[in-house]
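Changelog note: in this version the structure field was regenerated for every chain. One regenerated record is shown below for reference.
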Amino acid sequence: MDTCALRHPGLSVKRLIPLPCLPIAADSWATQETNTRSGADTWRCKECHGWDYLGRDGAYASGSHFTGFPGVADAAQSLSDEELLGVMKGETSADHDFSAVMPDVALNALVMLLKEGLVDVPQVINYETKAPVEADAAHGEELWNRLCTFCHGPDGRNINFGDDEEPEYVGTVAQENPQEFLHKDRFGQPGSDPEMPSTVDLGWSLQDVLDVLAFAQTMPTEPPDVSPSEHEAMEEEEEEVPDEANALVNPIEVTEDSIATGAGLFAATCSPCHGETGQGDGPLAKALAEPPANLHEDPVQVNSDGALFWISTHGVPDTPMQPWEQVFSEEERWHLVNFLRTFR
């Protein structure tokens, strides 16, 4: 049996609960005829109630996702925890009994999401323009570069959620379905590899997420203009540090001010993966496909200053280590090198 996963939406809980990836076990889906999806596409709560939790009164009020089912936002406010759990166990309607396919721990996790995790989406997203009502895209770019670029890349096109004929990137989702972007940014993408973290768990505010949404809406939606052969050639060029990079001399004197500058850059951008003390144990480390380097160890510290500068500039191919040339200035990268040397 295939399995999907549900993230427990507690503010500090990062547990995945395996669930059957099945059509709705109850008869709810059969009571509507407008949404023609079938099988696994019907199992998620959002297919009936929408990414904005408003069902027939929200973004799914029309179109192929319309089912006519109500949202959950009002019930989340008016019903108690026990009453919400009863609804999901079919106590108010046998057509809405999920107890056969979802264990109590998963149902209780959903109750917690409904009571503590929902936001009034129309108050923060303009449904006509699909833009955040209020957002700082520049701040969103800073947050993106600290966290999201590791997997999605600087322009959000490292991962294609669609296919070659109909590509879908971060920019696509942000522009076309900001309600989905808002929910997934806040609570992650269960079952993804590496696991997409929940920014709620990481302490981001709702405004932080809206700022990132505003930045993501500026991202391209067309495939990158790089052929496979060109991409392979670029990776081959970047696999080893060039001799001329190894020979570079750090133009920034090692001073307390320089180290402090590098430390600030490291704390804001590098520590989520490499950890506060550079030991590869940051909060995102377990979510990455390949563990971050321990910056105290020889594989890092044996490099010349020029090599460390080059790696921070170009990244490391086929790893989560992204190029930082577009994020840090040349001077900042040298300050970062000076700070990295304090780990020796």
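Spot check on this record: Residues 3-118 form one domain. Residues 1-25, 229-238 have pLDDT under 50 and may be disordered.
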